[in-house]
Amino acid sequence: MLLSRLLLCLCALPLAAAGCATSPPDKIGDACEIFDEKRSWYRATNKAEKRYGTPKALQLAIIRQESSFHHDAKPPRGKFLFVFPGKRLSTARGYPQALDGTWETYKTATGDKGANRKNFKDATNFVAWYVSRTHDKTGIPKNDPYRQYLAYHEGAEGYLRGTYAKKPQVKEAAERVDWVYRTYDAQLSRCEKRFRRGIPLIPII
Question: Which CATH number applies to 27-196: 1.20.1050.10, 1.10.530.10, 3.40.50.300, 1.10.260.40?
């Protein structure tokens, strides 16, 4: 019992946060289970939704599609001489798989120079910001997961040019995001009240 309390306290310390807070949720198919396990994620997505108007369910759905909630996700390497591992296929990194250039644009636009793609709070704020920017550039509603994901993957300009039209894998991914968004949204409609009431993060033992 004492050891359990100690471990929970250690997870709250900044130096231990990376080890305690970066593992993927145990049950990624249920938004309620995700937030039950990671209450700080609810606070982060809720804050981002209030700031940018991007639904929490869409923030989660995009991050799930991009990284399956792995903080250190990276694209695969290419092949050198058809055998040896080569360079990564892109500079996408972290929870949102944001490219280096796009991440720098985000940091400049928000003034958050210390934002890190491996930090869930920063990542979900980025996704919410990106969806809002896409809405401003293309008119895609913030609660249209299919088209928002197409633009997330292709960029607003690419979406407007229809670059996704001959990319069946991208359209299939957008369909998955659409389904996950609607699943998460329905789940949150049933359980979100208890997160808003601020149930204690550390249970009394």
Answer: 1.10.530.10
